[in-house]
Amino acid sequence: MQLEQKNVLLGVSGGIAAYKTPDLVRKLTAQGANVRVILTASAEHFVSPLSLQAVSGNKVSSQLLDEEAEAGMGHIELARWADIFIIAPATANIIAKLTYGLADDLLTTLALATSAPIFIAPAMNQQMWAAAPTAENMQKLRERNTHILGPASGEQACGDVGYGRMLEPELITKALCDYCHEQSNEAIFSGVNIMITAGPTREAIDPVRYISNHSSGKMGFALAKAAQALGANVTLVAGPVSLESPAGVMRNNVVSAQDMFDAVHNSIAKQDIFIACAAVADYKLEQVSTQKMKKQHGDDKLSLCMVQNPDILKSVAALEQAPFTLGFAAETQDVETYAKSKLVKKNLDMIAANDVSNSELGFNSDQNALIVLTEEKSHNLSPKSKDLLAMELLKLLHSEYCEKHGSRD
Ligand code: C5P
Question: In this structure, which topology does domain 187-405 adopt according to CATH?
Answer without folding.
Answer: Rossmann fold (3.40.50)
